[in-house]
Amino acid sequence: MMRWRQRLPLSLVFAALALAYAALAAALSLLLSRWLQGAWAALLAVALLAPLLLYHVRRAFAPMNALFRALAGSVASYRDGDFGFGVAWQGGGALGTLVAAHNALGDALREQRLALVQRELLLDTMVQNTPVAMLLVDPSRRVVHANLAARKLLGDGRKLEGQSFDALLARTPAALREAFARGGDGMFTLGEADDIDAGNEEIYHLARRHFRLNGRRHELVLLRQLTAELRRQEVQTWKKVIRVISHELNNSLAPIASLAHSGAELLRRGQLERLPTALATIEERARHLEGFIRDYARFAKLPAPRREPVPWARFLAQLRSQVAFALDADPGDASIRIDAAQLEQALLNLLRNAHESGSRPEDVALALRRVPGAWRIDVLDRGSGMNEAVLANALLPFYSTKRHGTGLGLALAREIAEAHGGRIALLNRTGGGLCVSLVLPD
Question: TM segments (predicted)?
């Protein structure tokens, strides 16, 4: 009986029950009318059949009620994150469609949950095994999460979750505390640079990021060890320096040695008329070598800037007396606190590069304008510009695309700008050429 009730439409079941009980009530009323009046006989028949009717109605509704309870239970399980339940229903119709849709939803949620768990496991594995120390700090300054590298660096391998970050920081070396006190990102060194055991010196980069998690402000702290990378770059830089210096020394010393030998032969033969030419060439190569070494020494020993107020009008006039350029500026009687000699050297290098870029002399220009809290200086040309690879490396020391370049002009300009608290950027201009932009604070 259960099976046919599940398969028949509910309206047909109720119609059959209604017809059956109407016929039964009519027959019972006719039988009771022998002893009672007609109305009382009908009421007594209905009263006698009501419990039986209620029983069959409940029997008819029982599978549907069980189905609804099963659906409610599975929905509660879904709400709790348990997607392992399904609902079985042998009937068809609207209820069969509802059950099929519910089971399909459960399958989709189960697959999504499994994929999410797999991604969480993968992400946790990556976070735990990355060499970068990572800590997540909540608004109450408690450590919410710390990976293995953070535990090793800050807790001797012990678990850090739940500890006060400020108390944890108080137990760290002074260099790390100072890096946090400065705020923002930065680099610091653990260990003594002059320690006999050079392996004790470790260089780290500190990065701090803030974001909102569940409506609350959290801080992500990243501590990355840079010692090996910096040492590798240092070795590569020294190798490049040695190659550049060796190249310049050979270019100068080889002709000097050859001309000295030739001069001795000319002197021995008494051909004194050719001797001044050889000596002049030796002097020219020696002076070139002297200037080359002097430029390297200047870059290596760049002193801290001695900043003092300098009127822009006077500074630009002094600069134009040494190199030609079109000026796009009207600073009036405004001034800026700079080391005039250092900034002049930086701009001379940039303007000479602009003249050597293949640009027409009249297209080399310097633009000066005020920006919030700073001054922006643009050195412009209409040369060939730079490709992406050159733009990415042009500011590095000893990097040069010129045949006889030292690779120090742009690097020196960058050192001077950053020593003044400013920055430098290079970008290609629309229509060809390069713009070298310096931004210097007041």
Answer: 35-55
Which CATH number does the domain housing residue 326 bear? Answer: 3.30.565.10
Both 106 and 168 in one domain: the answer is: no
Give the C-alpha separation, 439 to 442, whole Å.
Answer: 10
pLDDT digits (tens, 9 = 90+) for 53-65: 676 666 666 666 7
Mean pLDDT for the stretch of residues 22-43: 66
Is the full-model pTM beyond 0.70?
A: no
Residue 442 has a pLDDT of 78
Q: Which of 403, 404, 360 is nearest to 380 (CA)?
A: 360
Q: pLDDT by residue (tens digit) across 162-212?
A: 999 988 888 888 888 888 887 777 778 876 543 434 445 787 888 888 888
CB atoms within 10 A of CB 414: 21
Q: d(Cα 120, Cα 16) in Å, to the nearest integer?
A: 56
Question: Do 292 and 403 reside in the same domain of the chain?
Answer: no
Radius of gyration of the chain, Cα coordinates, nearest whole angstrom: 44
Residues 211 and 335 in one domain: no
Does position 25 have pLDDT exceeding 90, yes or no? Answer: no
Q: Contact 379/351 with Cβ under 8 angstroms?
A: yes
pLDDT at 296: 63
Give the domain range for residue 263.
230-300
CA angle in degrees (0–180, nearest 5) for 385-387-389: 140
Q: Which long-range contacts (CB under 8 A, 24 or more apart) does 59-68 make?
A: 59/1, 59/5, 60/5, 60/10, 60/13, 60/14, 60/17, 63/2, 63/5, 63/6, 63/91, 64/10, 64/95, 67/95, 67/99
- B/e letters for 26-57, b = 16+ CB within 10 Å, e = fewer, are eebbeebbeeeeeeebbebbeeebeeebeeee
Assign residue 147 the CATH number of its domain.
3.30.450.20
